[in-house]
Write a structure and sequence with these properties.
Two copies of one chain form a homodimer.
Chain A (H helix, E strand, L loop, with lengths): L12 H15 L7 E2 L2 H8 L3 H13 L3 E4 L3 E4 L19 H4 L8 H12 L6 E2 L12 H15 L13 H13 L9 E4 L1 H13 L5 E6 L3 H9 L3 E8 L2 E2 L4 H8 L3 E4 L13 H13 L4 E4 L15 H4 L5 E6 L11 E4 L3 H14 L4 H10 L2 H29 L5 E3 L6 E5 L6 H11 L1 E2 L1 E2 L13 E5 L5 H18 L5
Parallel strand pairs in A: 4-15, 6-7, 6-9, 9-10, 10-11
Antiparallel strand pairs in A: 1-3, 2-3, 5-12, 7-8, 11-12, 13-14, 14-17, 16-17
Helix pairs in contact in A: 1-3, 2-3, 6-14, 8-9, 15-17, 16-17
């Protein structure tokens, strides 16, 4: 075999030999099963050291291009039609399985909105969008010190795997907080999760399979709808009025659709801000029990109440094992902490803990320990009281700005707590179409269509998050929103 | 209506009235649709203020026991057969749906082992169990300072939701590290996850549904097996030899079972410690491509190599979109951090990012930012070099202790890297049965049965994690293990 080698080159000789052979094999010039010369022979042919040839062969063999069999020589292997790695320039064609992926949770509208927001030229935009309360209210410095203390105190333990169910002292604190809200749950029935989103996801993926029916309030939390759609569930909506889910319609839907789960947000429902009445709560539990359907109760801001009397949590009315309760520190504290929890009784608790361990082993131990140190019951309730004071004023500012600036026929659910005002604009105003006008004016909101199960078209709803902005900003933002409406639909005023 | 009230009692009058009516309603003495007296009338009857009666009625109404209709009076509602909340003493009977829960991932053996370990009386146990490397090697103080700096630098931003795909600078760092290992991936094709376990879970749950077939190496990573079983997948195993998965058997299995995914650990396979040969890697990709099956490549410790030449990652050989690559910082750094990642190209990347956002919105932003600050490419590689030096010595100590203390017929795969030695003891030694003897002697290991798909009984295998213990402890631990074997099976020596 004659291989052109260049003794003046910077490329080592063995690399030159390897390269030549590699190109021959990949191009097919050296056909599969071709026997290569023995190293001794090729070394003599080329006038190089035998080790040089051996190194070249070793590289090719390691890459699966040739194969040396003791006693019988070295052979070219079939190239298996492999192309070199494409790097970042890779473009299709993608394999067939990639061309046929499920894509049930439609995010095109969300993506469009994020694009509009990111392209906004406004120097001082005011956001009533999103589900997060005011980050400026979180005591970052205090929390930083808590993390320091925990790392000094616990050392490496804080960075090892923690318990599957979650850090036991934090589960104890959560049980205390729940008890102060009338929910009696043992810490052994609490499972700490990566935010309440993971809790929703675990429960749904564990209890339901593709094609199963889930009952939800209509409208409801958009990222729960997205999850359910992405899992291929059939989503059936129950309308909401001032007293929350219209439980009167439940039995008919249970008989018709045989759902595997009822997902409900009884307090300050997202997005409508309504609270389920006590009577409906009892009736809901009774019906779910009779029809053998589990209830997933999402109590994401149940204690952010500004006035009126709290209803008992569904979990507090649960005769045992009927309701899976979930909540979170994300809304009250900081969303980036990613710590929420679920509470469940009966065999489903162990099954969910087990399923969680297979999903992500454990939730960040360090953050759990820091939270446990940070969130005493007293501090939690003090923070809650202050939050209620601040947010009540913002709610009031939002209500009066809605009255002052929105078109005459606008309907609004006046929320007694939580983060959101839910508006129904006159029928001829599409909030989807309004959105780009609003962004241009420097204000944003969540279009109502995000919150309805697919197929319901309710384009004249919008959700306004009043908790992030000061009363002054609320006033200014709503003026801008009015300008956007006048711009798009001057007849509406 | 005559209600006995006690004016000397500490219980407020309205509470006494409420209690009396509540008991009447719940006992059925006050039947549904009974009309209650008007507040004015009952107040006069009882000689109390009308507001007192109004408050009692309001409480009952809020709890859904009565209902007042303007103009027509106040009525008792049907009680909906609700029992009071049972508190922590709740015992069944659980609702039917709870009695019929799937429980596919069998954890009874894992639970038993954890129980044995927790009950161990040994004063100084030595663990070769678990999949974690030595926590003492992690620079806790350095990491603590990094977290401080990040919180000072980024303030509240570090505690807000981050980007769905993960913190962009960290994705950049990961892309650099991957490039240094020969894998060319754009940061835009990297998705940061809560450890590699979440990456496995997302890919599997997104691409497969209950009843689908997954091909895995046999043996393989136990928590992946647990996940697959819990998801109701059909698990088909391909045997492993010194060169990793026996890809020669793959085509037959593909034709017979039509799997939807191939899960493989090509480097330092868990538990066997073997590396897939270059030829098999190419053949695997080629076959998967021809049969339109995605490959999930779990490269959990691919760069912990103590000797020999690294094979290219499957991802580096991927002609585009065939391989989903996952890895983690957990093994190299600290498992409690819960940060791993996947790399994928083609439409599946966006789908997985979307699916992840519905699963837990985002991964802890603070920890991602701290990692990004902490893990420069240079520091990572320095840490890697030191780890390799330390672990190589431990591997050598383990190999010689196996030679010195294990029964004569023991087979061992000599690993060129990674964390594990994989032993096959003589056929008549069950490692499941050996485990309690070993714990009694003060040593533990992972029984081999954890790592085989259900149905394969290979009780004479065991996995030893050598990376957690010093050479001296390894020597001592293996002496103890020998004692346990002699205790249980004196004939085996």
């Amino acid at each position: 075999m004659r291989i052109p080698i260049d003794r003046q080159s910077d490329t080592p000789l063995y690399r030159q030999i390897e390269k030549f052979l590699r190109e021959g094999i990949l191009s097919g010039n050296l056909a599969p099963d071709t026997r290569l010369p023995a190293t001794r022979k090729l070394a003599r042919d080329l006038g190089v050291n035998r080790i040089t040839v051996g190194n070249a062969y070793a590289e090719l063999e390691a890459d699966g291009l040739i194969c040396s069999q003791v006693g019988s020589g070295t052979y070219v292997l079939p190239p298996w039609q492999i192309q070199p790695a494409p790097g970042a320039e890779a473009v299709g064609p993608w394999p067939l399985w990639q061309q046929d992926l499920r894509r049930r949770g439609d995010t095109s509208k969300r993506d469009l909105i994020l694009k509009l927001l990111s392209e906004s030229q406004h120097p001082d935009p005011i956001s009533f969008a999103g589900g997060v309360s005011d980050p400026q209210r979180f005591p970052v410095d205090e929390f930083r010190k808590v993390i320091q203390n925990v790392m000094r105190r616990d050392g490496i333990t804080a960075l090892e795997y923690g318990e599957v169910r979650g850090y036991a002292p934090l589960r104890g604190t959560i049980a205390h907080i729940l008890a102060s809200q009338g929910v009696q749950i043992s810490p052994d029935n609490i499972l700490i999760t990566a935010g309440s989103q993971q809790a929703i996801s675990l429960v749904t993926q564990f209890l339901l399979k593709q094609g199963d029916v889930i009952l939800v309030e209509s409208p409801t939390y958009s990222d729960a709808l997205g999850l359910f759609a992405d899992l291929g569930l059939k989503i059936i909506g129950i309308p909401v009025d001032e007293d929350g889910m219209q439980v009167e319609q439940l039995e008919g839907l249970l008989l018709q659709h045989h759902p595997k789960l009822i997902y409900t947000i009884p307090n300050f429902q997202n997005p409508s801000g309504t609270c389920m009445s006590g009577q409906r709560r009892r009736r809901l539990i009774s019906l779910a029990d009779r029809h053998n359907v589990p209830i997933l109760e999402d109590d994401y801001v149940g204690d952010l109440r500004y006035e009126g009397r709290a209803q008992p949590a569904l979990k507090a009315l649960d005769p045992g094992g009927r309701v899976i309760y979930i909540s979170t520190f994300s809304k009250m504290l900081m969303p980036g902490l990613r710590v929420g929890f679920l509470a469940a009784e009966g065999p489903v608790y162990d099954s969910l803990a087990n399923f969680k361990s297979f999903n992500d082993l454990t939730t960040s131990n360090l953050i759990q320990r820091a939270l446990e140190d940070f969130v005493t019951v007293g501090r939690y309730q003090a923070h809650l009281r202050r939050s209620c004071q601040v947010f009540r004023k913002r709610r009031d500012a939002m209500m009066s700005a809605i009255h002052d600036y929105m078109p005459r026929d606008t309907q609004v659910f006046a929320p007694q707590g939580g983060l959101f005002a839910w508006l129904r604009l006159p029928d001829n105003i599409s909030c989807d179409k309004l959105f780009p006008y609003a962004v241009e004016e420097g204000v944003s909101f969540s279009p109502g269509t995000f919150f309805f199960p697919e197929g319901s078209s309710n384009e004249n709803f919008m959700r306004l998050n009043f908790s992030k902005q000061t009363p002054e900003k609320i006033q200014e933002g709503m003026m801008r929103l009015r300008k956007a409406i006048d711009h798009m639909a001057p007849w509406a005023g």
